[in-house]
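Purpose: get a first structural picture of the assembly so the mutagenesis plan has something to point at.
Setup: two entries, given in the order below. No constraints added.
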Amino acid sequence: MSDRVLSPSDLRAALNAIGDERYHIHHPFHRMLHDGRLTRAQVQAWALNRYYYQSRIPAKDATLLARLPTADLRRAWRSRLEDHDGSGPGLGGVARWLKLAEGVGLDPAYVETTEGILPGTRFAVDAYVAFVRDRSVLEAVASSLTEMFSPTIIAERVSGMLANYDFITKDTLAYFTPRMTQAPKDVDFALAYVDEHARTRAQQEQVLAALCFKCDVLWSQLDALHYAYVEPGRVPPGAFVPSA
Amino acid sequence: MSDRVLSPSDLRAALNAIGDERYHIHHPFHRMLHDGRLTRAQVQAWALNRYYYQSRIPAKDATLLARLPTADLRRAWRSRLEDHDGSGPGLGGVARWLKLAEGVGLDPAYVETTEGILPGTRFAVDAYVAFVRDRSVLEAVASSLTEMFSPTIIAERVSGMLANYDFITKDTLAYFTPRMTQAPKDVDFALAYVDEHARTRAQQEQVLAALCFKCDVLWSQLDALHYAYVEPGRVPPGAFVPSA
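Result (structure tokens, whole complex):
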């Protein structure tokens, strides 16, 4: 590693290169999902497990918010809590994901218990919340930068799933619509933070490592799903077994 | 769940029933390992990833030791640190695992960096250390009870690996020899602790849940290995790629 500080555009290019290699848009399970090659039961397993990720995002954001030193920063970060928890019951991203899970045939009360999720899901998601609690604020902010790539994966997922599954409706996928505008707003903030606070090459490397870590969090969730639920399917003891 | 407190022998039976269902001796990757159905490269991947688990056991034990209230308890738990870290360089369980990794053809310096381990390994192991830090001391102690089942899996693993792989020698597997006596000693202590401190049924249920959790930690590590390194083998970005 050189000591040369990367220009903002070089740093951006390095972040994008990580996404090109490690973002879960390249995971075989994602490709099966949007190509329509999964059964309804497998889509249920995805929705059930992904709910745990969604449900912990406010915990992740609150953990980070608690560490931000100024009202300006906290106010900006607070909008993420509003996006995910909404302004009332049934609103916000977490509730919308529950509707997605219900739309693919799961009992939302069961989904909310998070019983039946894969241990691999729980460990990966908990690692994300712990990262945001234990690392520097710079690394914590940078770990959110997978959202740089999320409009592309969401567009692929929504169009693919609508085209390829007769049990999926636009309404089921309503979760994703606001994310197309929320994610870019969040990315603008996080990138500006990173540009301002990653002043040394070592700090820039921490930013890049934080993005790698977060890609691992997303990727390993699909590893666990693929292993457990795709042919031959080795559901670990105690996890969700779809009804045939 | 009834409120009836289980007798020590009923509690023991409930713990054994969890092992019968959830201990990783039943995982397909373990069976492939001891049946000789893995390549040397796959055994390397196992040894590399498992090293991370071994290397964090002293951190787990120190975290728990720090929470124990009496010198008697701390002294008893300290023997685990002695078992794993030894009485000098090159001694103890962690060093012996490094020798195992070297014995199957890995560079021990590379293994020690823990670069190249699967994210699923890291997340599962870190979840174990976090559990021992964040849960009650009773649950933390109980999570060690997978050692009730380890003499059986070790005996299977050692005899199977010696019989089925020409690159494995008794010397390579020296890690396991002292474990056959250390594990039962640790189990006796932990079971006595549990019998004394789990006085309500709710506490006994916490003990059982802690054992389930720990089984998940072990099981999901084999899930990740199997998914990444067994046919077709989907090594995640950045993880160890064996040389052909």
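Chain B touches chain A at residues 21-22, 26, 28, 118-120, 122-124, 126-127, 130, 212, 215-217, 219-220, 223-224, 226-228, 234, 236-238 (CB under 8 Å).
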